[in-house]
Design a protein that fits this description.
The chain is α/β, with parallel strands linked by helices. It has 14 helices and 16 strands. Strand 14, helix 11 and strand 15 form a beta-alpha-beta unit. Helix 1 packs across helix 2 and helix 10 runs parallel beside helix 11. The longest helix has 22 residues. The radius of gyration is 23 Å and the shape is globular. The two termini are 39 Å apart. It binds the ligand C=CC1=C(C)c2cc3[nH]c(cc4nc(cc5[nH]c(cc1n2)c(C)c5CCC(=O)O)C(CCC(=O)O)=C4C)c(C)c3C=C and fe (ii) ion (FE2). Fe (ii) ion binds next to loops. It is an enzyme of class 4 (lyase). Keywords: Chloroplast, Heme biosynthesis, Iron, Lyase, Membrane, Plastid, Porphyrin biosynthesis, Transmembrane, Transmembrane helix. Catalyzes the ferrous insertion into protoporphyrin IX. One of its GO terms (molecular function) is ferrochelatase activity.
């Protein structure tokens, strides 16, 4: 795969903390085009049932029983609805399409792989954390407090950095994510070629190098005419795929080239047969290592999100996760593997409620109940990273053994498993025909989707809080004010 130096990129407007200066590498290429715009209509296929979702520009999702999904496409509206038997991709974009006309030029297909990114050295940890916490899809402040996003990110990243550094130090001093994602990009390019699709693959990370903005810049320089966007998260969450897609939407809004470029976004792909079978293969293989495989508890551990994402913002993540586990277990059952299984959520940050049950608590309970053999299966991410290598392999393993579990195993992340990469390539090929220009549209703010009472309540309490914290110097001294901000926002996250 070609890797392109892209040091000239202006990331200043994105407000990211670059941490280090100089050029970086972004990789990949293909040919295609589409339009990415303000809102996304999406259907979620749960156990064969189609559950409609409406995703706003911010990635917010709501159940939409009244939503007509395949209504006729109005003038100036491009309804992207790529559905294979196993992939949900439905994206609607409005407004005039300016600029690019793909049939006038030779088609050049691009595939943009979106991922989170991770610090490559211990010095990168704090600026990486700053970028993460500065993301309004990670720390969701009420509109009134958005001006605090960056100061809070600075504060939280500074407090969190020592703990994170310890974790990264224990896995060799940095995240393996970039290397693995580049390998996946290479493997995908080869797999696509074997399916007769010449494509350039680009890697765009949300919080570290190569940033999504760099990949986007390269796509434009390479004059890609059709683009497939593939987040490397099997399940959709506002905090992961949603956040990265929002970055794209913001770019598309401002850039006529991208506004006219046909784009197809594969929002989630956990339900693809190839993915489900690849996961089942890995599980079967690791089960066979145990002396009595049939007695092993299959323990799916997914990265958590704060409960409010699912309850208030309509994040489909938990539903998709549960559906994903059911599909993998069905596949195993069809092969005669009838083990017990359970799902829990890991990696919570701070004392706010996250999706339950929590991995650490369930491990202790299982030990107390007399479970002796356990196979941990990381399920929300397809690369090894700090939460598999440190949290599962070290912390949870130790906790499980202390709790009475005697035989421990862990399924590796999919990485470059050939059946999995081949399935991703199929997903790209299937998505291509639906790529369409994603013209600009007024992007709805997250808050505008909120019902009026919720919004007014937030405004009221936000104003009261703002008064006490910021506008009342005589009531609260400067030091106390800082302390209150700290206890309200920072402590829960560190
Ligand atoms: C599906 C995967 C992930 C979800 C959902 C997710 C949500 C989420 N994460 C944080 C906070 C942190 N995440 C960190 C690193 C990190 N997170 C994921 C995946 C998901 N996060 C990955 C792949 C990584 C990178 C790992 C690497 O190897 O570099 C970190 C930094 C590490 C640490 O200090 O623990 C933080 C912090 C929140 C708050 C959140 C949902 C709102
Ligand atoms: Fe995370």
């Amino acid at each position: 795969m070609e890797c392109v130096r892209s040091g000239a990129l202006d990331l200043g407007r994105s407000g990211k903390f670059l941490g280090k200066s100089g050029s970086t590498t972004s990789c990949g290429k293909v040919r295609c085009s589409t339009n990415l715009a303000g809102s996304t209509k999406c259907e979620q296929n749960l156990h064969g049932k189609v559950k409609p979702l409406l995703l706003s520009a911010s990635g917010k999702a709501r159940g939409t029983s009244g939503l007509v999904h395949r209504s006729p496409v109005p003038k100036h509206q491009h309804h992207l609805s790529v559905r294979s038997t196993s992939t949900d991709v439905c994206t609607t974009f409005d407004e005039d399409v300016k600029g690019v006309s793909s049939h006038a030029v030779e088609e050049k297909v691009g595939v943009l792989l979106l991922n989170l990114g991770g610090p490559e050295t211990l010095n990168d940890v704090q600026p990486f954390l700053f970028n993460l916490f500065a993301d309004p899809d990670i720390i969701r402040l009420p509109r009134l407090f958005r001006f605090l996003q960056r100061p809070l990110a600075k504060l939280i990243s500074t407090f969190r950095a020592p703990k994170s550094k310890e974790g990264y130090a224990s896995i060799g001093g940095g995240s393996p994510l970039r290397k693995i994602t580049d390998e996946q990009a290479n493997a995908l390019k080869v797999a696509l070629k074997s399916k007769n699709l010449e494509a350039d693959i680009y890697v765009g990370m949300r919080y570290w190098y190569p940033f999504t903005e760099e990949a986007i810049d390269q796509i434009k320089k390479d004059k890609i005419t059709k683009l497939v966007v593939l987040p490397l998260y099997p399940q959709y969450s506002i905090s992961t795929s949603g956040s990265s897609i929002r970055v794209l939407q913001n770019i598309v809004k401002e850039d006529p080239y991208f506004a006219g470029l046909p784009i197809s976004i594969i929002e989630s792909w956990y339900q693809r047969e190839g993915y489900v079978k690849s996961m089942a293969d890995l599980i079967e293989k690791e089960l066979s290592v145990f002396t009595n495989p049939e007695e092993v508890m299959i323990f799916f551990s997914a990265h958590g999100v704060p409960l409010t994402y699912v309850k208030d913002a309509g994040d489909p993540y938990r539903d998709q996760m549960e559906d994903c586990i059911a599909l993998i277990m069905e596949e195993l059952k069809s092969r005669g593997t009838l083990n017990d299984h359970t799902l829990a959520y890991q990696s919570r940050v701070g004392p706010v409620q996250w999706l339950k049950p929590y991995t650490d608590e369930v491990l202790v309970e299982l030990g107390q109940k007399g479970v002796k053999s356990l196979l941990a299966v990381p399920v929300s991410f397809v690369s090894e990273h700090i939460e598999t290598l440190e949290e599962i392999d070290m912390e949870y393993r130790e906790l499980a053994l202390e709790s009475g579990i005697e035989n421990w195993g862990r399924v590796p992340a999919l990485g470059c498993t050939s059946s999995f990469i081949s399935d991703l390539a199929d997903a790209v090929v299937e998505a291509l025909p639906s790529a369409s220009a994603m013209a600009t549209r007024k992007v709805k703010d997250t808050d505008s989707d909120m019902d009026m009472m919720h919004y007014l309540t937030k405004m009221f309490f936000g104003s009261v809080l703002a008064f006490f914290l910021l506008l009342s110097p005589r009531i609260i001294s400067g030091r106390e004010r800082k302390a209150r901000v700290f206890f309200t926002y920072v402590l829960p996250i560190t």
